[in-house]
Amino acid sequence: MTDAGGLPLGTTVSVIADWPEERGPCHLRTPSYVRGRRGRIAAHLGRHPNPEDLAFARPAELRRLYHVSIPLSEIWPGEDHPNESLLVELYEHWLQPHGTPS
């Protein structure tokens, strides 16, 4: 499922390796251990108010939210985790798509 302009299921994405907490107070829903990692769009969860703005009582635009499946080997390289993945809820502005869905 996708909405106009959304990322199709199966799209390979990288989680943006940004650290806004180093620039001052912020509220993040993106775990640090998945930043810079690759995964695939597993589900579209609709549009929701951006919690990064809601936390500071700012007007919050609607943002697309996805389930992203990240292989455990992306998070813990060198460990033996064949066919195992972590499912994380991530907002689209934290994702960089790569190519077309497979």
From TrEMBL:
SUPFAM superfamilies, per database record: Electron transport accessory proteins
Gene3D superfamilies: 2.30.30.50
Superkingdom as given in the UniProt entry: Bacteria
UniProt domain Nitrile hydratase beta subunit: residue ranges: 23-96
Pfam families: NHase_beta_C
Matching InterPro entries: CN_hydtase_beta_dom_C, Elect_transpt_acc-like_dom_sf
Protein name (database record): Nitrile hydratase subunit beta
Species name: Enterovirga aerilata
